[in-house]
């Protein structure tokens, strides 16, 4: 088609050389037809494939953005779940630590009370032993004092 138009153009230009730039003969409609033919040809050959490629690219970008936003939402949801589980674990750990400290404190206070009772018992036993030894020592001293007084009396009386 292009070659046919070109040959028509050449024939018309050879037949009419007079006039000038603004001659209104068959050249003007021929140029208009040539412009329309080139527009249709460019549309078929260049613009449609390029616009198809751009549309595919836009669709790919939209799909990628949709997948990325859904992945981000899922990641945010998982992050919130993990943070909640972490907070719950921390609470449980604090409760376990608190209970363990309370149990240890109770155990320590029981051991301290037991040690105090043992110390009081040891003190009482030692006090009782000392009292017994004191009583025994007093009895022994009394008997020795009695013996000595008897000896002194006898010596005084014998003199």
TrEMBL record:
The chain crosses the membrane at residues 31-47. Residues 116-151 form a coiled coil. GO terms for molecular function: proton-transporting ATP synthase activity, rotational mechanism; proton-transporting ATPase activity, rotational mechanism. GO terms for cellular component: plasma membrane; proton-transporting ATP synthase complex. Residues 1-15 form the signal peptide. Gene3D superfamilies: F1F0 ATP synthase subunit B, membrane domain. PANTHER family: ATP SYNTHASE SUBUNIT B', CHLOROPLASTIC. This is ATP synthase CF0 subunit II. The gene is atpg.
């Amino acid at each position: 088609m292009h070659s046919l138009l070109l040959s028509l153009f050449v024939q018309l230009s050879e037949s009419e050389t007079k006039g000038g730039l603004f001659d209104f003969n068959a050249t003007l409609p021929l140029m208009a037809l040539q412009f329309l033919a080139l527009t249709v040809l460019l549309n078929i050959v260049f613009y449609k494939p390029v616009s198809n490629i751009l549309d595919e690219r836009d669709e790919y970008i939209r799909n990628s953005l949709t997948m990325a936003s859904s992945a981000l939402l899922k990641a945010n949801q998982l992050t919130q779940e993990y943070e909640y589980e972490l907070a719950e674990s921390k609470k449980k750990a604090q409760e376990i630590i608190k209970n363990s400290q309370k149990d240890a404190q109770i155990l320590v206070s029981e051991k301290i009370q037991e040690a105090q009772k043992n110390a009081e018992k040891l003190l009482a036993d030692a006090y009782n032993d000392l009292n017994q030894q004191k009583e025994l020592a007093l009895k022994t001293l009394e008997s020795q004092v009695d013996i000595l007084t008897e000896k002194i009396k006898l010596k005084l009386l014998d003199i």
